[in-house]
Amino acid sequence: MTDPAGVAPIAGYDAVVCDLDGVVYRGEEAVPGAPTSLQDMTTRGVHVLYATNNASRVPAEVAEHLRRLGAPAGDADVVTSAEAGAAIVSRRVPAGAAVLALGGEGVSWALTREGLRPVSPTEVSAQHGVAAVLQGLGRQLTVADFEVAARALAEGAIWVVTNGDTTLPLQWGTAPGNGAYVDLLRTATGQSPVAAAGKPEAPLYDLAVERLGCAKERTLAVGDRLDTDIAGARAAGLDSAWVLTGVDRPSDLLATDLHPTYVIASLAGLLQPYAVPLTLEGTWRCASATARIEGGLLHLEPADAQPIEVVRAGLAALLEHRDTASTHPRDPAVLRAGGDVLDRVSAGPVGD
User: Fold this and answer.
1) Which residues contact 104 (CB under 8 A, 6 or more apart)?
2) Do 215 and 237 contact (CB within 8 A), yes or no?
């Protein structure tokens, strides 16, 4: 879907599955420019569906948050990992079965929507157990609640988790995410979940595509986290746009085997001409920026290119160095030093 002539990425798609935390907002506040970019996409006729690993809130609450920030969103335009998780549980237990809702309101809502009976930790007793545990982020959960969940798992309840994000981006930094609490239960019980619904697994993206009714090849997944959003897009067979407004930085890409379809500074990059890195005799060029590996160092010539174009050129050179180890010795120091340089370049003002 990339185009060396500089076509805007969004031109190749009918629908976008957009992550929220770190892409559209951080905590209660909008990522600068994100709501306007989303409005522009819908004006162009692109269907935007928001898919979030955060299972704590119901879709209507998320949609109201988005509208308050100025982003276009109806209640049906939000799909959560709690919904995907509840669908998995419903296929493993009888209709109407009691399920421990270990998380926020979004977990209970999703279970009810699937015809199951959500039970809070305080409602579980020795006489009335549960068939399954659906675990999602719940910032009100207590130590006692996790003790109830551990007991249910010891008694044979099926364990499904909405997502494994270990961190949650907020205005002040990162807080523990659902994955951190999943690890708590894993350590305490010696068990592992039978399934995870959210990214990087495919179920959440699959549910989003089903709801959109759009062909996968005409659907673009957008996110800031490599290990969830971009890996999940690959698992679901979707093109991806990696946005640098969230948790991960250019150096993080070098430690993965991932190749996002697009690398953009912000959501605005989907609407602007996209310069694709091209190589000639060991030098990578993106717009007017060039990058090459020489003498064990990454050499960048920004010229009058945008910072994100410098990042793309540099990433192309470093990824080539990393991925062609069969033809030359790969030097981890080159990747570390080069990644640090690109992190500094990308840390400038948000924009594309």
Assistant:
1) 55, 56, 57, 136, 137, 138, 139, 140
2) no
For tokens 């309101």, the residue is 105
77 is known as an active-site residue: no
Instruction: Find the DSSP H helices in 34-174.
Output: 34-43, 59-69, 81-90, 105-113, 143-154
In a domain, 59, yes or no: no
Confidence of residue 250 (pLDDT cuts 50, 70, 90): very high
Is 253 found in the same domain as 167? no
Q: Which of 21, 77, 206, 229 is catalytic?
A: 21
pLDDT in tens, 149-198: 999 999 999 999 999 888 876 777 788 889 999 999 999 999 999 999 99
Of 270, 289, 312, the residue at which a domain comes to its end is 270
Domain count, the chain: 3
Q: Among 151, 178, 196, where does a domain finish?
A: 196
Residue 211: partners with Cβ closer than 8 Å, 6 or more residues away: 49, 76, 79
Q: Looking at 14, 19, 224, 257, which residue is catalytic? A: 19
- With tokens 């986290």, the residue in question is 225
Mark whether 253 and 288 lie in a shared domain: no
136-153 in b/e form (b: 16+ CB < 10 A) is: bbbeebeeebbebbbbbb
- Examine residue 288 and state whether it is found in any structural domain, yes or no: yes
Residue for token pair 């050129």: 313
**What global pTM score does this model have?**
0.88
Q: Does a cis peptide bond (omega within 30 degrees of 0) precede residue 200?
A: yes
Per-residue pLDDT at 228 exceeds 50: yes
DSSP 229: I
* Residue span of the structural domain in which 291 resides: 278-346
Q: Within a 10 A sphere around the Cβ of 120, how many other Cβ atoms?
A: 12
Q: What is the CATH number of the domain that holds 48?
A: 3.40.50.1000
252 a catalytic residue: no
Task: Give domain status of residue 332, yes or no.
Answer: yes
> Diameter of the chain by CA atoms?
73
Give kind and range of the element (H or E) at residue 314.
helix 307-323
Q: How many CB atoms lie within 10 A of CB 17?
A: 31
Give a yes or no: residue 70 inside a domain.
Answer: no
